[in-house]
Structures are given as C-alpha cells and as structure tokens.
Amino acid sequence: MSEVAVPEIPARIASPKIGFVSLGCPKALTDSELILTRLSAEGYETSKTFDGADLVIVNTCGFIDDAVKESLDTIGEALAENGRVIVTGCLGAKAGEQGGNLVKQMHPSVLAVTGPHATQEVMDAVHANLPKPHDPFVDLVPNTFGIAGLKLTPRHYAYLKISEGCNHRCTFCIIPSMRGDLVSRPVGDVLSEAKALFEGGVRELLVISQDTSAYGVDVKYRTGFWDGKPVKTRMLDLVTRLGEIAEPYGAWVRLHYVYPYPSVDEVIPLMATGQVLPYLDVPLQHSHPDVLRRMKRPASGEKNLERIQRWREMCPQLVVRSTFIAGFPGETEAEFEHLLDFIREAQIDRAGCFAYSPVQGAAANDIPGMLPASEREARRARFMEVAEAVSVARLRSRIGATMQVLVDSAPGLGRKGGVGRSYADAPEIDGVVRLLPPEKISKTMKVGEFTRARIVDAQGHDLVAQPI
Ligand code: SF4
User: Fold this and answer.
1) Sign of the CA dihedral 415, 417, 423, 426?
2) Residue having the nearest C-alpha atom to atom 4 of ligand 1
3) Among 47-56, 222-231, 366-375, which is the least confidently predicted range?
4) Based on the number of CB atoms within 10 Å of its own CB, is 106 exposed (0-12), middle (13-18) or buried (19 or more)?
C-alpha cells in the first residue's frame, strides 16, 4: 500500500506582542485606532501594558504643557520597563528649545519618532524593529467593524474623524504646526465607515475634527459618491446623510467642534427633527470681540449670542457645550465680565474653562499684558462658579421629563440600576444619567441599548432617572 503524503500543518507561531498607550484627545484616539487596526490585520497582538511586550508604541499629546509632561513621562516609563519604544502623535512633531526633535532630545534611545496621523510611518518603524509575523492562523484577523477597523471606545459608541489638520491660526494653539492644514477625508469613505460602525453595533457616532464646520473647504466642497449617489464634501450634506444612515439603527449622531459660522444655521433644522442630536459642541473660548480678535478665533466677527439665541428659537431642545479660556493675555476685568454675562445670557448648558497657560511655540506668548498665574486661576474659578450655576439650573429644569437614555453600564441586566447618557451628554466630557433600579421586575437594561427614563433628580453635573 502506498503512503499518502499528508501536508504538514504549520505549528502556530506565537504572535509578536506590542504594548500600546494612547494619550490625548479623541483625534489622537482615532489615530491609535487606525494603527491598532493595521497591527491586528497583520497578526500582531496588542495589549495596554508593557508586560511581556516585544516593543511599545506611545501615541502622545503635545497640546498643553501638562500633556507634554504626561507624554514624556509615559515614554520614560515605557523605556524603563520595556526598553524598545516607538513614539507617534502630536508631541512627536514638536521641536525642542534649540530646534531638533523634542522627544529625541529628551529620550535619545527611542527606536523611532513620528508626528500625528502617520499610520504608515508607524507601521514601517514596527516592521523594521519587529518583523511582521507570517502565520496563516492569524493573518487577516476579522474585526468587529469591517472597513471601520478596530475601535478603542466601548462597542456602542465610536468617534468618526472627518478631517485632519486646521486652516486657522489661533494665537494660543500649536495644533496646525503639528497636524498641518485642513485635509478633509473623502465623503464616500466617511459615510462607508459610518455605515460599517452602525452595522457593527455602534449606537452613537461622535463626529470629530479640528473644525467640523470647515469640512470640504480644502477640496472646494467637491462632489463625491456614496451608495451610487452624488454627495458634496460639505458639513450639511455629510450630516444629512449620516442622519439617514443612522435612522434604521435608531442610532445617534453627535457633532463636535462646530464653529458658529452662518452655515451652521442650516444644520439646526436637522436637529429640530431629530435626524441628528440637538447637541452642539462649539468651542467659543471667549465672548468679547477684542479678546477673540487677539486670539484670532475662527468666526470671531460673528454675533455669537444672537446666533445661539436664534438656534434655540429654531430648536428649543438644543444643548450647547463649549470651552473657554480665562485670563488670556491682555484680558481686562471688563472683558472678563463680558464673558460672565455671556455665559448667563447664552445659557451655555455645559462649559469647560482653562486658566490661560502659555504653550511653548504659541503666538499668544508675544501678546502684551500677561496676567499673573494667581489672577488667571482666580478668573477660572469665578467663571466656573457662574457656569455651574447656569448648568445646574438647566439640569434641574429637566426634572419630571422623560428622556431616552443610552445605557453605558448595567451590571446584572440593570436590576440594581446602571449608568447612561441622554442626548445632552457626550461621553467622557459631560455628566451622566444615573439609572435607578427599574420598578417593574420584568424590565432589564443592557449596555449599548436605549431605555426610556423619567428624570427624578439632578446631582451636580448628573441627572438621576427612573427607568420606565
Ligand atoms: S481652530 Fe484654532 S484652536 Fe482649533 S485647531 Fe485650529 S488653530 Fe487650533
């Protein structure tokens, strides 16, 4: 009897392991997601720890001095614990005091340094230092969201980055020097990614960029295609389509980093009809026209108070979130009080505030009239007192209302209660809705599903609600 040759099955090779740390804003997070998707598709294993990793990638933030320090410390820790480190992200694009690369100056033993939004450069550095595995069992690992790749957020919400970089030159900001000018993603790619995310279970899509209202300016609002139909590369067209794609899934679309240009007026009717969430994250930074001019803010000539009031007339349920800077160089007491009045009159629902802190390389450092640190901090505290009073009053006005809540946490099917968010709360930055145990024994709650709840109390930045 002749022997039959049995093909040898290759032994499963242990996958090279990469420790990954992601610091910074949601835009940096989406860069991390792109890199992790490529690593996973090529068969690398990834972990959040340095333990047993063959090398470590640190995605850094370089926006304010505290973030720079945190990033440099993390790189130092990774070098001490692992020794083989690739650095990417905004800090990687930052120059040191005497020129040259800051990260390389501070940590000369890192394997490679790239700037932000540099997936291919990071992959090249990984391949050079930890060759790509050839394992038939792990090549082409399927991922949850298809073309949208791996996500670092919980499965039920995801950030959708629509553009990279920024054409503005705000005097306190060094982002354009790190991330470059605005580059809008093709509208068809953005919409395909959104569809894949909803199909993969995402129920809240958070649209992000440096300047969402400027989407498409760089390509002169070029017409792209999605689903066989033409779509303009323009915020209104994008948001309209996103609302249509989200609808069959009952999912939310939330807009971040929208500047108060007149064109935003066209998006408000979509909020009034519920096609996109009536929530706008508008980073205003100040209210006084002279301060806005010194900041060189986009839309600084707009009458923001009147604009917000008009938006509220068109869509009374609109929630406005914003961030501000107190104690900007040259800010007078009268200009600061103008800001406090603005918060009261515009009824900003959620406001964050930084005391101005000089960022190395920012043009604002040369503006005369730097206030002492104690005064900048004192103004921030005064701002927060006013902003919190407005916010608490607006939250209290919701008591008695019934709201749809997206469940973020519900141990034991929510029988002992859980935590969720309403349309008024973006993840990570706003408050939450604390869900009480349901009164009906048959009522259950699951992470990533919606529940209706009656608001019974307000506590600090949060609401308390009874699921119904
Ligand atoms: S709009 Fe201004 S603050 Fe925002 S990224 Fe551009 S330059 Fe920086």
Assistant:
1) negative
2) 210
3) 47-56
4) middle
